[in-house]
Amino acid sequence: MPTALITGGTSGIGKATAELLHKRGYRVAVTGQSRESLAAARRDLPQDVLVLRADARVMADTDALIQSVREHFGSLDLLFLNAGVFRPSPLPDVTEELFDESVDVNFKGQYFTLQKALPLLVDGGAIVLTVGVVGADRGVPGATLAAATRGALLALLPTLALELAPRRIRVNAVSPGSTTTPLYDKLGVPAEAREAMSAGIPFQRFATSEEVAETVAFLASDAAGYVTGQEIAVAGGLGLGLGI
Questions:
Q1: Buried (b) or exposed (e) across 203-217, using 16+ Cβ within 10 A?
Q2: 164 closest CA partner among 222, 108, 117
Q3: Residue 38 and residue 8 in contact, taking contact as beta carbons nearer than 8 Å
Q4: Of 25, 38, 69, 120, which has the fewest CB atoms closer than 10 Å, so is most exposed?
């Protein structure tokens, strides 16, 4: 039975991916940080999904996480590095505290989770990174921290793919565009603003978390067995036009 660890898996895309992989026969572990999201995941996800608290900024939490996965699963077929924070702020308003949080969660935390999980990954396994269209080559005002820290993961992609190729471990990225998740509620984005955002997407709607999860499941599957070092945007065509 294949196994998967999903960081940031207690809500949104991570949770949808956990549900999908579980339906397809995976043993799944997810991480979260807030008491509320952990409680919701334990309530909503299948009982045999392992729900673990881990703060990506704290190396001791990461060590404990990997030890728990080792004890329960023994090995990993998929590592989905999905944990992240998004704190939109114009450049003049970015504080050192905000900067450090974004770097520590979005880049440092994911980097060292990968490093520490690597001994558990089976040869021929898969790693999927969540980047997002803001972290690639598309800009959004107020998102400099997200672009820099998520973009750092994308910059790692070809090097990681080459470094792990001798073990046939595939490393790919999924880049969601605007997606229906609890994030917009947390940010207080009103319905009319979301409608205006949808109007700028060629498909005229947000993605669902389940649509992004399907892409992650594909990248984890044998159907993507010869795919590595690639980014797949799940964005309904966002960013394809010339903007004129």
A1: eeebbebebbbebbb
A2: 117
A3: no
A4: 25
